[in-house]
From TrEMBL, chains A, B:
Database matches in Pfam families: Fer4, PNPOx_N
Superkingdom of the source species: Bacteria
Full protein name: 4Fe-4S binding protein
Residues covered by the 4Fe-4S ferredoxin-type domain: 148-177, 178-204
Species of origin: Zongyangia hominis
Gene Ontology terms for molecular function: iron-sulfur cluster binding; metal ion binding
């Protein structure tokens, strides 16, 4: 997998889930299909009166999730920024051309209540729960950074092998220390719970 | 639509998006299909080591979103609570029976790293963007409360009709004051922006 393929897969999914945090610290989630993809950015349309718009203007942090028909999860974690004034109309019209159903929701000039945000910097996480073993990988978009997640076995490992026995994905390899094959790890934490030497450290 | 139908529709969607907020205030979203529905509650499985579990234990606020094949969005906003110790195994086994693919991800006893949370109190929002006009409705689960959203026209209305002309869904009716038909409202905010009397108030 790669970044370009992930974005293309998201485009094919069509309807994505966007999560933000509101002023009260509550998780907020909604579906968005009014999207346009550029090679290094995702543009999306919402309306200026929506709480979603308020949340993005207050704190642009957003996570975007798509689930493909091949049971892959693709997640973007980044910042949504307001597109500059002079470019707003161009992207609104682009999205309305690509997504004809939008003209039924916002007929004629009523699309003028629209506003365009863009995600240029993001972490992209690819996660395939249907593969054996499961498979995950991370990429970056723009200045996005990869946040380490999951678990790692430290030098405190005593080599007892207890973690190997409980790993659902059989993704821990012998060694000094033992090693988690990160791309096949569920992040379930079974290894950390069972380690008698407390050698398994949570990342992130 | 009603609460029961919404839950049944979510069950048929299968894979839902769950949003939480992490300790750093970041939105977090992931797909969950390890679910079991009771008439008045939704049970779900995750693993004790996952960040998702940490977020739920720290702050149970969660939003759950499903997108049906009929282009309906169904959203639960509520609190996820840890199911009591003595009931954990029963629900894990129920979910693994209903979702056979889980035994591929967590074979044999490795499912013991699982943990079950339950949503009993929630607001349910139904939103159909494909209907003409669009349609929305809210219901409650358990002690869930409906949070008013969108806009309302107050007594300051001067009856000029400007809002009627800009409403994409044509859902504002004449009167003193004019009135927004809430079940057909996009929450786009066009009426609020154009009102010369500032009579349109944001809810929530």
């Amino acid at each position: 997998m790669d970044k370009k393929t992930c974005l293309e897969k998201l485009r094919l999914v069509g309807v994505l889930a966007f999560a933000t945090v509101d002023a009260g610290g509550n998780p907020q989630i909604r579906n968005i299909s009014a999207l346009h993809y550029e090679p290094e950015a995702v543009y999306f349309f919402t309306a200026r009166g929506k709480n979603f718009c308020q949340e993005l203007c207050r704190d642009g942090r957003v996570q975007v999730l798509g689930y493909t028909k091949y049971n892959e999860m693709i997640r973007l974690s980044g910042t949504a920024v307001l597109v500059e004034e002079g470019e707003q109309k161009k992207w609104i019209d682009t999205i309305f051309t690509e997504q004809p159903y939008l003209a039924n929701v916002y007929p004629g000039d009523t699309r003028d209540i629209g506003i365009i945000f863009c995600i240029r910097d993001a972490q992209i996480e690819y996660f395939n729960l249907g593969a054996h073993p499961i498979f995950r990988e991370c990429y970056t978009l723009g200045k996005g950074k990869i946040t380490p997640k999951g678990f790692v076995i430290t030098e405190q490992c005593v080599g007892c092998g207890a973690c190997v026995k409980v790993c659902p994905q059989n993704c821990i390899r012998e060694g000094a220390p033992y090693k988690i094959v990160q791309e096949h790890c569920l992040h379930c934490g079974a290894c950390a719970e069972c380690c008698p030497a407390k050698a398994v450290r949570r990342l992130g």
